[in-house]
Amino acid sequence: QVQLVESGGESVQAGGSLRLSCAASGYTYRSACMAWFRQAPGKEREGIAVIYTASGSTGYTDSVKGRFTISRDNAKNTVYLQMNSLKPEDTAMYYCAAETWTPRGCTVRGLDYMNWGQGTQVTVSS
């Protein structure tokens, strides 16, 4: 059984920063794809960042590139999302997702992930 627990979401003002955490248990974290998704009310779920835990290789969607950084602390089985220069458009429920790595590699496609956390709310006020 895979369990993912997100934390760190809160209300901040535009231009501020937050760091989200995703603590993983119950699976082989050392060789996994870990990704961050977000979903705003009335909008589609959007994949924004992904990391391969073994190598640290990362990928980002254009909407957050240059502002958000995904990283991992393998000793803590935890993945982080550092969010800087936050905008009101970043307001959403943020979800962590995980999947055991396969030779096809890591993606930021929601359909490629079977394991999801419950989410943490980020609200950015103007």
Brief write-up:
The chain has strands at residues 3-7, 11-13, 18-25, 32-39, 46-52, 58-60, 68-73, 78-83, 92-100, 115-116, 120-125.
Tell me the overall shape.
globular
Question: CA-to-CA gap between the ends?
Answer: 40 Å
How many runs of DSSP E, i.e. beta strands?
11
Largest sheet: 7 strands, mixed
H/E element order: EEEEEEEEEEE
Helix content: under 10%
Class per helix and strand makeup:
mainly beta
Radius of gyration: 13 Å
Write structural notes for this entry.
- This protein is mainly beta.
- Helices cover 0% and strands 50% of the residues.
- The chain is built from no helices and eleven strands.
- The protein has strands at residues 3-7, 11-13, 18-25, 32-39, 46-52, 58-60, 68-73, 78-83, 92-100, 115-116, 120-125.
- Strands 2, 4, 5, 6, 9, 10 and 11 form a seven-stranded mixed β-sheet that branches. A four-stranded antiparallel β-sheet has the order 1-3-8-7, with no helix packed on it.
- It is globular and about 40 Å long.
